[in-house]
Write a structure and sequence with these properties.
Number of helices of chain B: 3
Largest sheet of chain A: 6 strands, mixed
Shape of chain B: globular
Shape of chain A: elongated
Order of helices and strands of chain B: EHEEHEHE
Distance between the termini of chain A: 60 Å
Number of strands of chain B: 5
Oligomer: heterodimer
Number of helices of chain A: 20
Helix content of chain A: 40-55%
Helix content of chain B: 25-40%
Strand order of the largest sheet of chain B: 2-3-1-4
Chain lengths: 562, 98
């Protein structure tokens, strides 16, 4: 048995012992961490690391080795042992854990399976290293100050071999293992926001969701924005690095920003960023995005490791025309229906307005109906365009009486926008594009391969695809609200060059503020039954899109405006 | 995920080289209020991360003091301090435009 797996060893690189711990905890966790190399350090991870640094020495004189690095070609394992101590003439492995131990029938402390296999692995590595047997390992659980004893016998060795074989098998598969059945494991798992176990389970028992959604237990989805987005709009701005802070130099003086408080740096126009600052951002996982002075998304940069398995799956899925059509249908349906719902919602109590746009509403409704049975991508694009035309024709009706004529649009114009309203629309769309691009890169998908927009396009087709989901909710809704509240000044907020209209410096700041506020607003997802911010919704949709081709299709583009 | 709170972090580091590194690390997380006193708005994962990173830099002879402040405590900071301390009372916005 050992011989056969030594042959495998030449193919697979050695495995971290910690990975076996993950494997026994949850196979999906193992796959995400070791194969897809997605690692998220949460509070417990750091607290655990600190524990290992803090563990004080024993008061007796027993010989001890700390943090011993070991590896074995025969087992295909490597790792760092917390401590090894000489006890009664034998070496004993010590492993420290922050949590509580498992209790046996008589309340005696026992090791959890995942901890046990880790201790066993260290013991066999030590045996090989010292050339003498290590009969025992001890796991110290610091939360309840208990020590569990693990015997290193034949059974332990067999279990370890089984685990290593299973790990090798998983490392050579492309698909993610299923979500674990034990839900309690997920509440303490650092990768839950990536794995989305609850959404997965939601699909399995979809019939019950209706009752779930109203229950108060359906918790709020945490915001993924723990830090600030830094927009640099000043024209002579210069972003540089000082220690672990970003310094933004402008004509009004310098501003120092702690890097850990920033999640994305967005450069609007011609601000400069030094290479040192780019290095710092890449190291800390802070994205940088560039927008043109006129407000077009130019480029984005995120330090995202090449997630090979994710890409392979995406390429396989989107190379199939039937998949593309199915996803495109869901997408277009979601987009048009949101447009329709918005028109209906804003004219609900105003019969005169409703009557005025009734023909448009009827036609959009027709497009919604046809989109779910459309035979090809071309028809879908046609329907999308038709609905958009009607929608933009109806949109001006939603503007209030007091809105000045300068802010009323005359149809949809772009490249360049020829009136103020269109300038605002275009600017907001590029902010959405930047946000969606950031989410796609963070999740690890390839932005150049989409399903509705053709891959020949210069801009990233997947970004353009997913943007369609959010145009109405993220920008048109707050924008029309702000126009109706008369928040825009027709002179100061715009700059007009011939037939073209752009936003001025002031106008840009206002638009960014409006957009960022919208991202922070929360919204209750009809399917998940949970409140989440729009910022989080964007990321969630990207992850749900990936689920369409990994394990559980049917959740993507299901949310609707209310 | 846990909410963010203000933390007052103060240190005594007994070696100039380590002192600079510790100060630089804290500058990455918050603002300097006084010479060796920092103010950081942190949630639990970030606090643990900072704590671990500081642990790597400091040795046994150095001291670290972390004082978590609840929102109402932080709100009372401006009352008893000199200078403009109004920013203690309000949460950090989710974006910043320069």
């Amino acid at each position: 048995m050992i011989v056969s797996s030594t042959a495998d060893r030449s193919i697979d690189p050695p495995l971290r012992v910690m990975a076996l711990h993950a494997l026994l905890y949850c196979e999906r966790l193992f796959y995400l961490e070791e194969v897809e190399e997605i690692r998220v350090a949460d509070a417990n991870v750091y607290a655990g690391r600190r524990l290992h640094d803090d563990v004080a020495g024993l008061d007796d004189e027993t010989p001890e080795k700390r943090s011993l690095e070991l590896s074995s070609d025969q087992w295909g394992l490597f790792g760092k042992v917390d401590a090894v101590r000489r006890r009664d003439g034998k070496w004993v492995v010590y492993e420290h854990k922050r949590g509580r131990c498992r209790r046996g029938d008589n309340k005696e402390p026992l090791a959890w399976d995942s901890d046990r296999i880790q201790a066993v692995a260290y013991a066999v590595l030590l045996e090989e290293h010292f050339g003498e047997s290590v009969p025992e390992a001890r796991i110290r659980y610091h939360a309840d100050k208990a020590t569990a004893f693990v015997q290193i016998d034949q059974q332990a060795r067999d279990d370890l071999r089984t685990a290593v074989t299973r790990a090798d098998h998983l490392r050579n598969t492309v698909g993610r293992p299923a979500v674990t059945e034990n839900e309690r494991l997920c509440t303490r798992c650092s990768l839950a926001p990536v794995c989305l176990p609850e959404e997965e389970r939601l699909l399995e028992n979809r019939g019950e969701t209706a009752s779930d959604t109203s229950s108060p237990e359906a918790g709020a989805y945490p915001s993924n924005r723990e830090r600030q987005t830094l927009h640099v709009t000043a024209q002579k701005a210069y972003v540089t690095r000082r220690g672990e802070s970003l310094v933004v130099k402008t004509e009004e003086g310098d501003q120092v920003l702690p890097i850990e408080q920033v999640d994305t740096l967005v450069i609007h126009g011609h601000g400069q960023v030094t290479t040192q600052a780019i290095h710092l951002c890449a190291w800390k996982g802070v994205g940088i995005e560039w927008m043109s002075y006129g407000g077009r998304f130019t480029a984005g940069l995120t330090n995202s490791p090449g997630r090979v398995q994710q890409r392979i799956r995406q390429y396989r899925a989107l190379a199939r025309p039937d998949n593309c059509l199915r996803l495109a249908k869901a997408l277009v349906h979601c987009k048009i229906e949101n447009q329709l719902k918005y028109l209906l919602r804003s004219t609900r109590s105003e019969a005169a307005k409703r009557e005025q746009i009734q023909p448009s509403i009827d036609r959009i409704r027709e497009c919604v109906k046809k989109s779910s049975s459309s035979p090809s991508l071309e028809t879908l694009r046609g329907l999308e365009g038709m609905a958009a035309k009607q929608y933009f024709a109806a949109l001006p009706v939603l503007l209030g009486q007091s809105v000045p004529d300068e802010l009323r649009p005359t149809g949809r114009t772009r490249r360049p926008p020829t009136d103020r309203f269109n300038a605002l629309l275009s600017y907001g769309y590029s902010l959405i594009q930047a946000t969606v691009h950031r989410s796609i890169t963070e999740v690890g998908l390839e932005a150049s391969l989409g399903f509705l927009h053709q891959p020949r396009s210069a801009a990233h087709p997947l970004v353009l695809d997913l943007m369609e989901l959010f145009r109405t909710s993220l920008w048109e809704v707050p924008l029309i609200g702000s126009v109706n509240r008369l928040q825009w000044k027709t002179d100061e907020d715009f700059s007009i060059a011939g037939a073209q209209v752009w936003l001025s410096q002031e106008g840009r700041k206002k638009a960014i503020g409006l957009f960022e506020q919208r991202l922070q607003e929360s919204y209750k997802h009809p399917l998940m039954g949970k409140s989440l911010t729009f910022a989080r919704l964007v990321e969630l949709e990207v992850r749900l899109l990936e689920k369409e081709w990994t394990e559980s299709p049917g959740l993507f583009a299901q949310w609707r405006l209310r | 995920m846990s909410a963010k709170h203000w933390h007052l972090i103060s240190y005594d580091v007994r070696d100039p080289k380590r002192l600079r590194k510790v100060a630089q690390k804290l500058e990455a997380y918050g603002n300097r209020v006084q010479y060796s006193v920092f103010r950081c708005r942190l949630d639990r994962p970030t606090l643990e991360k900072l704590h671990w990173e500081l642990n790597q830099l400091m040795t046994g002879e150095d001291d670290l003091l972390v004082i978590p402040l609840c929102p109402s405590c932080a709100g009372r900071v401006p009352i008893h301090s000199t200078g403009d301390q109004s920013s203690w009372a309000e949460p950090l916005p989710s974006f910043r435009v320069i």
